[in-house]
Amino acid sequence: MENLALIDSFSEFKDDKQIDRVTLMAILEEVFRNALKKKYGSDDNFDIIVNPDKGDLEIWRNRIVVDDRDVMDPNEEIGITEARKIEDDFEVGEDVSEEVKLIDLGRRSILALRQNLISKIHEHDNTIIYKQFKDLEGDIYTAEVHHIRHRAVILLDDEGNEIILPKDKQIPSDFFRKGDNVRGIIESVELKGNKPTIIMSRANPLFLEKLFEQEIPEVFDGLITVKKVVRIPGEKAKVAVDSYDDRIDPVGACVGMKGSRIHGIVRELGNENIDVINYTENLTLFITRALSPAKVTSVKINEETKRAEVILRPEEVSKAIGRGGHNIRLAGQLTGYEIDVLREGAEEDVELREFKDEIEGWIIEEFHKIGLDTAKSVLDYDLNDLVKRTDLEEETIKEVISILKEEFED
Prior knowledge:
Layout (H helix, E strand, L loop, with lengths): L1 H8 L1 H7 L3 H20 L5 E6 L4 E11 L10 E3 H7 L8 E5 L2 H4 L1 H28 L5 E9 L3 E5 L5 E5 L14 E12 L2 E7 L3 H11 L1 H4 L3 E9 L3 E8 L6 H6 L4 H9 L4 E6 L4 H8 L5 E7 L4 E6 L1 H8 L4 H10 L2 E6 L17 H9 L5 H5 L3 H7 L4 H16 L1
Parallel strand pairs: 2-3, 11-12, 14-15
Antiparallel strand pairs: 1-2, 2-4, 5-6, 5-8, 6-7, 8-9, 10-11, 13-14
Helix pairs in contact: 3-6, 7-10, 11-13
């Protein structure tokens, strides 16, 4: 019954890890066979009998009876004298089956066996967890804050599985306390050293798309399709939606009366500003809608360079660009086109790229980041406003303005 006692001693693993008895028995047999190979050099002549119903396991070593002087391999052969100590009527040539007790393996082997068994059970458990969460990639998941670190928040789900929410996968305004429930998508699952690493994200655009599925019945039912989502987490997002049923207004259904439907999503995302836009295959119209809330006068598209030149009235330019250039950047990501904004009546404007001999490329790039691609788009802004919007020094901006003004004076 020593083998049975060993099996019972591992009941905490079965209970904690919810491993079924049959699987536990299979792991036990594998571990025992490894121990037998180390002790006897081979396990080929051993029978391991597992009874999952009783939770019992027996080990029998099979040997051939030979004359005492002819014993060459003690693991596979037994001398007649020793055989008759088991049963006194054995004869040379007969098979002897003898039960192996744990004590026969030795104390060190038993300790190693226990450690090996623990390792195998954890490995099995980790494989199950990996497969479970691999199937959940891209889905919304909820877990509780267990520990807050500098670069990540460690979450635990109801089963005690550890989920990592890295700092760069959080919304900038996120603030968590231990015990808080956190929602996000399972972004990736990897096996590292036989241990699954589960990464959650709240910054991924897919999280917003899944929130639409979860919170808006028509999206969940497939009556409304989310065509594309682009985000600057915590700041602004644009969502293009479509419906194959002409009777359904996709934007109205998603936003709800006075924003009632989208309000919960906005709150979940730290008051992220969400523009919901009607998708269309008419590219000119789609770019026009993507620049909302600005009202576009006209759009000129270059399909080869994937650029769109958009003309607006002067008072609409700042709306098109948006705070920090967020609106125009997201409109470009949503449509797949680089968008250049021009003021109405300013056709003689000059692109900033044309000044690369006088203005360093990294400075031009700083203006591009906030949606300013032309000379007049920069000159339209007040100096103090440009200092706030860019990471440039005031003296650098003054020098740029001076260069651009000279162009138009000439």
